[in-house]
């Protein structure tokens, strides 16, 4: 490994935005993944394809950092875990992240483990494309089922439900009761 070699591969969907001039007003960015970027992301996430990926990202300055709010829309092709056939579904998700510069934790400093950790803010740039890509990976169904599979599973569950009990006072046939009568003779 050389000094200038990156520790991790470059993000497939990188949209680096400078926050150096970010003022009090929020800055809005609309980003869309190209064909090659979508194919690379599909490989990274282990799905068959990403047909469409777009997001609207808002960046705003907050005390001690930057808040990112985004809404993403994607059309993905996954393999159904029941039918083992490809199917297309739409993923819509909204999320927010807070970027802050790292604060050294010294003796006497307490950390609240119940609060989500902020994203590290290194320099004056945020890769909003990578933030969207990571959120898409979290929003994907880990056990995707096509509508046909869901329908079949619902039908099977309905077929397995026990029959409703007879109305009160109604006599029902009981095969083992009849057998017991025969054995008593």
Keywords:
185 residues; alpha+beta; five-stranded mixed beta sheet; two-stranded antiparallel ribbon; 7 strands; elongated
Overview of the molecule:
This protein is α+β, with helices and mostly antiparallel strands and about 180 residues long. The protein has one domain. The chain has helices at about 35-45, 130-140, 145-160, 175-185, and strands spanning about 15-20, 25-30, 50-60, 65-80, 85-100, 120, 125. The strands form 2 sheets. The protein has a 5-stranded mixed sheet with strand order 2-3-4-5-6, covered by helices on one side. A two-stranded antiparallel ribbon has the order 1-7. The mean pLDDT is about 85.
Q: If helices are DSSP runs of H or I spanning 4 or more residues, what is the number of helices?
A: 4
- What does the radius of gyration come to? 28 Å
Question: Average pLDDT across residues?
Answer: 85
Amino-to-carboxy terminus distance: 91 Å
Poorly predicted regions are: none
What is the element layout, followed by pairings?
Elements: E1 16-18, E2 27-32, H1 35-45, E3 49-62, E4 65-79, E5 86-100, E6 119-120, E7 125-127, H2 128-139, H3 147-160, H4 175-184
Parallel strand pairs: 5-6
Antiparallel strand pairs: 1-7, 2-3, 3-4, 4-5
What's the gist of this structure?
The chain has helices at residues 35-45, 128-139, 147-160, 175-184; strands at 16-18, 27-32, 49-62, 65-79, 86-100, 119-120, 125-127.
